[in-house]
Amino acid sequence: MPLNGKKVLVTAGPTYEAIDPVRFIGNHSSGKMGFALADEFANLGAEVTLIAGPTAQQSTNALKRVDVISAEDMLKACISAFADSDITVMCAAVADYRPKVVASQKIKKQADDLTLELEKTADILATLGKEKKSGQILVGFALETHDEENYAKGKLEKKNLDLVVLNSLNDKGAGFKSDTNKITIFNKALEKTVFEMKSKTEVAKDICTAILKMIK
Ligand code: C5P
């Protein structure tokens, strides 16, 4: 199989950023795309580590699965797995902000409005991009609502990626919870490949094929 002996790291799902012991800030990511990718890499013979935020998804293959909750947990898990990884695909919808203070007890209803102060989380993908050594392949996702292609290309350069996979919320049937996705892939030369709407399993195959082309 083409990826025998290769180590692959995939992130999937959302992250949850605690507000207090019962509440969090999260997002609609289902984890389906990342799990489909992890399964496809395993089908190709790779040794896969899947770092997953809170999700109901189950992997069908034997993977090393690491469950995390917050962006900070995901960052630590990624840093420890990345150095060993030949191919890394960051599919998780990581929170960009988290509450600056996590209340140790449930916040009681106030008489008036409540303001939460948020601080930035670390950009995991950009952190790994800085650590990337020659021979390692790093792939990111971009989910955009407008000016998609320019943002996607900007991410490829800023985060030191080898490929960026763009999915737009403007395409019906693409994105967070659906079983289908419509992607465009940009490589380092900013060459673009546009794909049809497909099941996430088929999309995962297309992404793996694009990565295999770079290895050969
Ligand atoms: O910049 P933006 O968040 O849109 O980039 C999306 C890409 O970056 C995805 O591949 C996502 O997994 C990754 N990301 C990350 N850590 C963050 C934010 C995004 O790894 N804090």
UniProtKB/TrEMBL annotation:
<dbReference type="GO" id="GO:0015941">
    <property type="term" value="P:pantothenate catabolic process"/>
</dbReference>
<feature type="binding site">
    <location>
        <position position="159"/>
    </location>
    <ligand>
        <name>CTP</name>
    </ligand>
</feature>
<comment type="pathway">
    <text>Cofactor biosynthesis; coenzyme A biosynthesis; CoA from (R)-pantothenate: step 3/5.</text>
</comment>
<feature type="binding site">
    <location>
        <position position="141"/>
    </location>
    <ligand>
        <name>CTP</name>
    </ligand>
</feature>
<comment type="function">
    <text>Catalyzes two steps in the biosynthesis of coenzyme A. In the first step cysteine is conjugated to 4'-phosphopantothenate to form 4-phosphopantothenoylcysteine, in the latter compound is decarboxylated to form 4'-phosphopantotheine.</text>
</comment>
<feature type="domain" description="DNA/pantothenate metabolism flavoprotein C-terminal">
    <location>
        <begin position="3"/>
        <end position="213"/>
    </location>
</feature>
<comment type="pathway">
    <text>Cofactor biosynthesis; coenzyme A biosynthesis; CoA from (R)-pantothenate: step 2/5.</text>
</comment>
<keyword id="KW-0436">Ligase</keyword>
<comment type="similarity">
    <text>In the C-terminal section; belongs to the PPC synthetase family.</text>
</comment>
<dbReference type="GO" id="GO:0004632">
    <property type="term" value="F:phosphopantothenate--cysteine ligase activity"/>
</dbReference>
<keyword id="KW-0285">Flavoprotein</keyword>
<feature type="region of interest" description="Phosphopantothenate--cysteine ligase">
    <location>
        <begin position="8"/>
        <end position="216"/>
    </location>
</feature>
<dbReference type="GO" id="GO:0010181">
    <property type="term" value="F:FMN binding"/>
</dbReference>
<keyword id="KW-0479">Metal-binding</keyword>
<protein>
    <recommendedName>
        <fullName>Coenzyme A biosynthesis bifunctional protein CoaBC</fullName>
        <ecNumber>4.1.1.36</ecNumber>
        <ecNumber>6.3.2.5</ecNumber>
    </recommendedName>
</protein>
<comment type="similarity">
    <text>In the N-terminal section; belongs to the HFCD (homo-oligomeric flavin containing Cys decarboxylase) superfamily.</text>
</comment>
<keyword id="KW-0456">Lyase</keyword>
<keyword id="KW-0460">Magnesium</keyword>
<dbReference type="GO" id="GO:0071513">
    <property type="term" value="C:phosphopantothenoylcysteine decarboxylase complex"/>
</dbReference>
<feature type="binding site">
    <location>
        <position position="106"/>
    </location>
    <ligand>
        <name>CTP</name>
    </ligand>
</feature>
<keyword id="KW-0511">Multifunctional enzyme</keyword>
<dbReference type="GO" id="GO:0046872">
    <property type="term" value="F:metal ion binding"/>
</dbReference>
<comment type="function">
    <text>Catalyzes two sequential steps in the biosynthesis of coenzyme A. In the first step cysteine is conjugated to 4'-phosphopantothenate to form 4-phosphopantothenoylcysteine. In the second step the latter compound is decarboxylated to form 4'-phosphopantotheine.</text>
</comment>
<keyword id="KW-0210">Decarboxylase</keyword>
<dbReference type="GO" id="GO:0015937">
    <property type="term" value="P:coenzyme A biosynthetic process"/>
</dbReference>
<keyword id="KW-0288">FMN</keyword>
<feature type="binding site">
    <location>
        <position position="96"/>
    </location>
    <ligand>
        <name>CTP</name>
    </ligand>
</feature>
<dbReference type="GO" id="GO:0004633">
    <property type="term" value="F:phosphopantothenoylcysteine decarboxylase activity"/>
</dbReference>
<feature type="binding site">
    <location>
        <position position="155"/>
    </location>
    <ligand>
        <name>CTP</name>
    </ligand>
</feature>
